[in-house]
Amino acid sequence: MTTSARYFAAIIFLTFPAIAQAQSTGQVECPRSGGYVYLYSSMITLDVRTTLQCGEQVQITGRYDLYFGVRTAKGEVGYVPVESLLLLKDKPGASASQPRAVQPNRERILYDAPTAPAEVCSEFHAQSS
Questions:
Q1: What digits encode the pLDDT tens for the residues 90-106?
Q2: How far apart are CA 79 and CA 66, in angstroms?
Q3: How many helices (H) and strands (E) does the chain have?
């Protein structure tokens, strides 16, 4: 019994990272008026590898404290400050349920939303009878 529980736990822990992957696409947001963000080759030395243009999309490879590890479309790898990157939704998530519109239990007045033609006809016949 104990052996099968260990195997089951091992399978769960090995497949969990595949299930819980984060969003992997980001868009560069420019905090300054220059229209670019630095791509650093190292988080420690902050050596500038290149500049990224505003709106450029990058692939996120990981998060390290105050930086995202990214890969550009040209294949350059580096680090971008967290506040310089807008995460884009590229994987389906749980959808929020929409609340149903509640119809008031009162007589309709001029300012209410228009009704369907079938409702108008039935209301007209009910009032004329």
A1: 666 556 566 666 665 77
A2: 10
A3: 2, 7
